[in-house]
Amino acid sequence: MTKTDAENTPSDALTAWQKAFFTKDAKAFAEGFAENVVLEAPIMRKPVGGRDRVRQLLWTAAEIYESLTFTD
Questions:
Q1: Which helix (H) or strand (E) holds 38?
Q2: Between 47 and which of 5, 14, 30, 40 could a Cys-Cys bridge form, CB atoms 3.0 to 4.6 Å apart?
Q3: pTM for this structure?
Q4: What average pLDDT values come out for the chain (72 residues) when binned by 10 residues?
Q5: Widest CA span of the chain, in angstroms?
Q6: Which domain does 40 fall in, by range?
Q7: Do residues 18 and 25 touch, judged by C-beta distance below 8 A?
């Protein structure tokens, strides 16, 4: 099954998050997270929960990595 152009286009929320990430805007970066957001990633032993903790972890990644790929 092939995705349509609309299905391949990032959501507005993802686009805003990517812009905040790459422009290093920490406030805008975390605005879209729910207060009870949970981040799960294969590289982490345990999920990270809560807006502030997830923002801190991802913001640290933004400082370390020059290039990341985001998916919806």
A1: strand 38-39
A2: 40
A3: 0.62
A4: 50 79 79 88 91 87 71 60
A5: 39
A6: 33-65
A7: no
